[in-house]
Amino acid sequence: MNGEESQWLTVLIAVLGGAIRVGTPFLFVSLGECLTEKSGRINLGLEGNLIMGAMAGYGVAWITGSAWLGVLAAGATGVVLGFVHALLCQQPRVNDIAVGIALMILGTGLAFFIGKPLIQPTAPHLPALHLGAWSDNPALRAALEINALFIVGVLLAPAMAWFFRSSRWGLAIRTVGESDDAARAMGLNVNLVRMLATMAGGFLAGVGGAFLSLYYPGGWSEGLSSGQGLMAVALVIFARWDPMRCLYASLLFGGAGALGPSLQAVGVTSGYYLFNAAPYVLTLILMIAASSTKVRSGMPGSLAAR
Amino acid sequence: MSTLALEAINVSKRFGDLQALDKVSLQLRQGSIHALLGENGAGKSTLVKCIVGFYVPDDGEVLLGERQQAIANPRDAHDLGIGMVYQHFTLIPNMTVLENLVLARPHLPAVIDWRKEREAIGARMQKMPFQLPLDVSVNQLAAGEKQKLEIVKQLLLNVKVLILDEPTSVLTPNEADEVLGRIRDMTRDSGLSVLIITHKFREVMTYADDVTVLRRGKHAGSARVADTNIKFLAELMVGSEFTSTALARESVAEQTLKLEIDTLKVADDSGKAAVKGLSLQVRGGEVVGIAGVSGNGQRELVEALAGQRPQFYGEIRIMGEAYAGQRADLLRHGFHCLPEEPLRNAAVGRMSVAENLAFRRFDRQPFSFGGWLRRGAMRAAATQAIADFNVRPPVPGIPIGNLSGGNVQRAILARELSERPNVLVVANPCFGLDFGAVSEIHARIMAARNAGTAVLLVSEDLDEILELADRILVMSGGRLVYETTPTEADPVIIGRHMAGHGEETHAH
Lengths: 306, 508
Description:
Helix content of chain A: over 70%
Distance between the termini of chain B: 60 Å
Structural class of chain B: alpha/beta
CATH architecture of chain A: Orthogonal Bundle
Largest sheet of chain B: 6 strands, mixed
Helix content of chain B: 25-40%
Shape of chain B: globular
Number of domains of chain A: 1
Oligomer: heterodimer
Number of strands of chain A: 2
Number of domains of chain B: 3
Radius of gyration of chain A: 20 Å
Structural class of chain A: mainly alpha
Largest sheet of chain A: 2 strands, antiparallel
CATH topology of the largest domain in chain B: Rossmann fold
Radius of gyration of chain B: 25 Å
Distance between the termini of chain A: 57 Å
Largest interface: A-B, 20 and 26 residues
Strand content of chain A: under 5%
Shape of chain A: globular
Order of helices and strands of chain A: HHHHEHEHHHHHHHHH
């Protein structure tokens, strides 16, 4: 094996590891957004949930000494923000996009404000599973150091797909998302279903935030999320509102996010910032691709009706 | 069989200022088809929605099998064996037929075993009056199949009383006969009782056993169909206030040339030529009717004229000046248009009636002043227009999409006729309307013509063209292929030209 080849292998392994590490928050936020959008509402505020979740998760983990309690706390802040979003959106003449943007700014600002004292202290990290212990290749070992939350997310995607397909509640959410009238004719409480779906979606986004602060990159700082919550919304469109495709798309976005750092690791420094921009470029490309009508098949009816 | 399946007694319902239902009673005999007849806005839909618990009536009661039942929501109605097929489909387009059928069940298990459901529903489907493929997504079904699916959905729930809200409005006459015929068979075979909302007399006379007529929210009369006739029902439906509104054609002295279309070519959505070099002229005080089977370029012609399809070749001139369909052109030339499907083509469904009525002039006085909209003025103008054109319900603040088809048509016509139009283009203005609304809209068009407007009427309804037009043109394959006048018109020859076989009649 010559040096050139092994370098590219290293990049490949690093991108793979990055896909898992960077992709996990995408996965949680996109599953949350998928759940919310299936009920016929768009929550752009998940970026705010993500950052609030990161801050709250880090704070609680630091105070209690338990990273897992931190994850729960992060989810709980997401539930609260989701509740606020749903409550505002179900008022007459209120637009969910506008409310989402407002809550995104609110969540971000609130997290920076409350989180100021959390920049210094060190909270316990979430444990990782060393699945690469069999290999002597340090790069591979690092790549296969997989966080338990990722496993949870990977199991969650098919579980959610099954939930939408075969459970009464899943069908209720889909019905509400497809048509208010159809749902009402079935005797469903449209606002209640949307509220629960938005709160559950908020929980998942909050957990995604906890992954950011409690595992990778780890620590609390104001630059922790760089628009990942918003990109996850684009990702849901790309995934055509299918939880399994959300999983694949998250890995793709994660891999794109890891491209810059891994190239730098092997000494490719030219165009570093350009490669770092890969996820954003990918978002743009996906948005353009998604504007063709074909991709919109699978879009919940009440979203398409706008 | 004279036991009652369902009885409504003195049901009243009020929406704001509007008394939608005023002490209406109705008796549905078991094993019969009962028609509920009335014009748009007469309260038919409100009454049945009260019966199924979609609305809670302000007063009155509903008896089911001679016992009073509190029906607070559609689920209660389900449990009591009442099923309703709404006028707008309540199917979920992105789901399959099977998923839709399963979802309709009022009490779903927490986890659904799709294999078992498919077997159970597949087996029962065999015994249904209509068979439908289970795994097809509903958005791939034709309108007729969707209507059948809605009915099957209710029948699978073992309903004893089936309520159908204008079930044939989206069906071809053949499909309507099939659906209603099968339903009548079911009332005879299995004791199903059916309440059917309609405004088609033919369906009432052919399929119903009893009929109740509503007029303006009041009970106008009930009868056995065998003991009544169309004329009597029509009088009940429209009431004594009905005087034929047909306006006489007056001769208009000064007939200036207003609208000229010169070798117009327009492409359809796929880029193929739909209008292939069409020329015509319309003078003031003249209705020019374009007859033709839909899909021969009429839609593209109207869209080009309305400015919805700005790319065209050839020339359109109004009063001798070039016209491009821009907003400024519309205002300068007094160009007005009632396109087909006005809710889609000329209105914003989620905006209020008042806002929709202000579209033409929202940025000028009196609707705007110094850059600010004056909602009070819009509302006042809308209230006036609603009263003039009899739009129901007469509430300017509700979204226009909540109005029934005929009322959307009236509202848009109110907007387009609000200032005296110079040129008026009208496309299929009476599609799906009841006869009261049709004669009213025809009278409005004729009044505009008599006042000197140049009217271009594009319609698939030859009778409408024969009634209104001064000159009749036939459009086929994107071209005008024949011209005649109402006095000389022979429907057979026109029909032949519409079908594109005009050459054989040149000898005529």
